[in-house]
Amino acid sequence: MERRTVLAFAAALAVGAYRIAPEAKAAGSGYAVGQLRTEWMENMRRHTAVVYYPARDGGVHEAARRYPFLVFAPGMSKLAGDYSVLLEMLAAQGFVVAAVRAAKPARNHNQSEYLTMTQDILAMARRMQALARDRNSPLGGRINVKGYAAFGHSLGGAASALAADYDSSIVAAMNLDGDYSDNTLDARPRQPLGYLVTEPPAGGGWMERWSHSKSEHRREGIWKDVSSKSAAPCRLRVRGMLHANFEDGAIHPELNKNRPYGSIDGQRGIAMTAALVKAFFLPYLKDDAASAKAELAAVMADYPEIAFMP
Hints:
Layout: H1 3-15, E1 18-25, E2 32-42, E3 45-54, E4 67-73, H2 84-92, E5 96-100, H3 113-133, E6 143-153, H4 155-166, E7 170-176, E8 193-198, H5 206-226, E9 233-238, H6 266-285, H7 292-302, E10 306-309
Parallel strand pairs: 4-5, 4-6, 6-7, 7-8, 8-9
Antiparallel strand pairs: 1-2, 2-3, 3-5, 9-10
């Protein structure tokens, strides 16, 4: 590689390079959705991410509009693009969704993947603060940076709860069917905490059923510990959804034929998840906690598959 190419690449990383993908219309809402791919260096580590955001609609008040932002963390070895349908739906509903692009391996033998993902979430939030101040960014001046919410799937979901424990500027966190393990077992966030769980796979012999029952009992005990200090803990189960149903493959199974998906229609399952995430986060992002129960109740009326769990 030529020296000038190396210098140009280094300079791009130093200032926080990004490129904009074409705008697309997300299903089920009013905003067109833009994508911003961003990369930056922090603490001698290169980060990459994808940001989904409501595209400018040209309205009279567009220049003064500030959108709330969410940080999303994927499951282990997953990319942000594996969840593009869900993230675009949320952006189409008026959120800026900053997705950690890839789950990186732990930096050393003494650090768990959960802690690494937690650090990625916090680094992503700091990056969003920088983009909000950058006049050359399409997000410059368009993000409400007073507080944010964190959520994720699987490993990323558990890491979101730990991130909330570390960062008081996270107003609420939600875990999409992630097991709490390693460092996240010690998470005790005080913010509102959501936990959306799915059904275990059907079938199998008595040994498999016993294993699932034991796992559910373990998860229930851990949830009680992790949520013990939360201002508003909320655990929900969705009938007919399995662990992989949050990914794009639930709608397009050919993307990963080896993943088991539930009996619920993939499009409905992801639309329901987007509605739940919005209903759970928006009252706290708007500093209107009193409306939280009503927001959730409205979604559950539309989707009877959802049930509260103790």
